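User: Before I run my own analysis I want an independent prediction to cross-check against. Here's the chain; please return only the structure tokens and, at the end, one sentence I can use as a sanity check.
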Amino acid sequence: MKNFVKTFLATIFSIFLFCTLFGGVVLFNVEHNLSKKMIVKSVKEVDVVEVIEELKYTEGTNATTVIDEIYEEADAMEISKETVDQFLNSNAVKETIGNVIGTLTEGALTGKSQDFITVEEWNDMLDQAVSEIKENENISLTEEQEEKFLEEVKNHSDYIIDRLPTTEEFTNTVTSQELVDVQYIFGEQVKILGIGSIILFVILIFLLKYKDRAWLLYLATPLMVLGIMLLISGVGILPIILNVLEESEVGTTIIQIAVSNFKNSFVISGIVALIVSIMCFIFHKVPKKKEEVVQ
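Assistant: Structure tokens:
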């Protein structure tokens, strides 16, 4: 009866451990993929010109007005559309866009005010973007065209910066209760609670099933189930969602890249969980084999 109770409790704690690990891994991957670093990386994979074309068909947006004006001004200076496309797709532009989006996202998740881009920093980015496209052998740009083009695009800098939402303005678009819930989920308290719960469940399982290292089986099992579920999500479910997005009008480039990032992070997390699970199984078997050799 005593062994039955220990086994029952160890099984319950093992299930709790799985639930905590699953929730923790999902939250970690969401936070990781919404970090400024990952957003910048994602934006660098985006064709900005393609996104602009998609925005033109988005009802109620005037996001492309300035871009259209830049194309018109460039055409008046006999600067080709391909040159402007290269300018918009330069690493300097993409990195700045990524940093702006990342700043807003991190501010919403953490509730902390973030330093925002200034007009001077924006103009520095424009200088870097033009210097970058000049290195392309297929782009022909005279010094006069470069100066006039930079002057024209910088004329729009104040307008663009003034209309970029601050962290506070961005968070105000979400209801206060939703924002509080999101910030709590990704806050330090939940992280501490999650880590503490994992440690507690491991200790309890160890105390209940330390004999013959049976506790390792109760760790290996939830880790194996977790790994399998993450791999199924990463290899099976998310690729299907990605294919649907690619074939539908809803599947914008940014959403597709975001789903692709989650797919990759789920696969990596699943593989790590399976490796740790297999190690637990191996360590559980090793002592038994040694005892058999001794006997």
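Sanity check: The chain has a mean pLDDT of 81.
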